[in-house]
Amino acid sequence: MSAPDGSPVGAERSIGQLFASATTEMSALVHDEIALAKLQLKQDVKRGATGSAAFIVAITMLLFSLPMLSFALAYGINAWTGGHNGNGGWNLAWCFLLSFTASVLLALLLFLIGLAMFKKAKKGKAPQKVAASFKETAGVLENAKPHPREVTPANRGGEGVEAVARSTS
């Protein structure tokens, strides 16, 4: 059995070899995570497209069924006013006009509800709050500087260890 870098397991490896191995594994992990995210995004897009297509078909079927509803409503009004037993009832033209009026009033009510929702959504500040939060976080990270560790006899290590200068960028 051997380690990912080809050296036998249990053999002493240098810090450079360990660091190279860790870097390689971290890079592979990041690439795998990106591939997984792409795959999940692709699946979500497929599901969204399928759901949208089903939604569009449902709305289209509902739209084509509205004339049947209007006819049923008009004939129902005619029957309700006495047309079902041969006594005449209301004239069918008035029944159809009443059915049309009911449809227009329902459409107007739905339009007003939709308009109120659009106004409420327009007043929403969620995207601006998120953008402001990102800018604040970026500003904090720009000013962050690493704090060098103090060298004490306990953590100094061997005599051959040199101090490493840290980057300030």
Features:
0% strand, mainly alpha, elongated, 169 residues
How does this structure look, described?
Helix content is 69%, strand content 0%. By secondary structure, the chain is an all-alpha fold. The longest helix has 66 residues, at 15-80. The chain starts with 14 loop residues before the first helix and ends in a 26-residue tail after the last helix. It has helices at residues 15-80, 92-123, 126-143.
Précis, in short:
The chain is mainly alpha-helical and 169 residues long. It contains three helices and no strands. Helix 1 runs antiparallel to helix 2.
> Which shape, going by the Cα principal axes?
elongated
Structural class: mainly alpha
Biggest beta sheet attributes: none
* SSE string: HHH
How are the secondary structure elements laid out?
Layout: H1 15-80, H2 92-123, H3 126-143
